[in-house]
Amino acid sequence: MSPTESIEHPLFGRPDIAALREDLALALRAAAHHGLGEGVCNHFSVALPRDADKFLVNPRGLMWQEIHADDIVLVDSAGNRLAGRFEIEPSAMFIHAAVHRLARKNVVLHSHAPNATALALTRRCTLDTTLSQNAMRFHERVMIDGRFNGLALDASEGERIARALGGKDIAFLANHGVIVCGERLDYAYDDLYYLERACQTECLARATGLELNPVGVALAAQTARQIQGERLQSELFFEALRRALK
């Protein structure tokens, strides 16, 4: 996709924002590397520090594996492009702007990752957080939105999803995909990666037809607390991705 006329903004070149653009582009390339992308669809966004009404988002028309910091777009909550060379896709605004504004989430990662989406197509519409260790990290962190309304092409649908989060940071959207939110991009990406791994192993286990072996909810909750209490592994993973995916 050819870029449009580039728009400049004083915030865009600020060192902390430039670093955030680098990190967002890295997360997108990592997601492509891990098979979490889908064509030129889906979006990752990060609110600006101390300014939740402005956020960075990937541009319309580029595949995640080709995105670098210079391609990232700065927008406001009304959908105005404040800086960048590319336009943005409407559904990115309606979902992401609402979650940033109403749910007060710093990081919003929306993906149609195959295994997580497969579970979103089931009547249960989520993963079982008492099965794998990877799934246990999400125990009591998941919201299920069982209402599919077609494409999110208006503000009311984005606001409905944002309000439905109810303080949770993982959303399974029925017949659609998933949203992973967080305070930090490296933590949120780590969660997205392990969410898809947990969904993949659950799908494989169920496909065997063998009886599953869940643990008790108390142990699942304990394991979730253990993982959330030590996130150095998330930081190390993101830095390893930075070295591996130039």
Explain this structure.
The chain is 41% helix and 16% strand. The chain is built from 8 helices and 8 strands; from the N terminus they run αββββαβααβαββααα. Strands 4-3-2-1-5-8-7-6 form an 8-stranded mixed sheet, with helices on both faces. β3 and β4 (81-83) form a beta hairpin. α1 (15-33) packs parallel to α6, α2 crosses α5 and α3 (114-120) crosses α6 (185-207). The longest helix is centred in the last third of the chain and has 23 residues, at 185-207. The model has no long low-confidence stretch (mean pLDDT 94).
Short recap of the structure:
This protein is α+β, with helices and mostly antiparallel strands.
Fold topology:
Layout: H1 15-33, E1 43-48, E2 51-57, E3 73-76, E4 81-83, H2 90-102, E5 107-111, H3 114-120, H4 133-136, E6 142-145, H5 155-164, E7 170-173, E8 177-182, H6 185-207, H7 217-228, H8 232-244
Parallel strand pairs: 6-7
Antiparallel strand pairs: 1-2, 1-5, 2-3, 3-4, 5-8, 7-8
- Relative strand content: 15-25%
- Structure class: alpha+beta
Spatial order of strands in the largest sheet? 4-3-2-1-5-8-7-6
Shape: globular
Please give the CATH architecture: 3-Layer(aba) Sandwich
The top-level CATH class is Alpha Beta
Q: Alpha-carbon distance between the termini? A: 22 Å
Fraction of residues in helix: 40-55%
CATH H level, superfamily name: Class II aldolase/adducin N-terminal domain
H and E order: HEEEEHEHHEHEEHHH
Residue-averaged pLDDT: 94
The total beta strand count reads 8
- Under CATH, the topology can be stated as L-fuculose-1-phosphate Aldolase
Count up the helices.
8
Biggest beta sheet summary: 8 strands, mixed
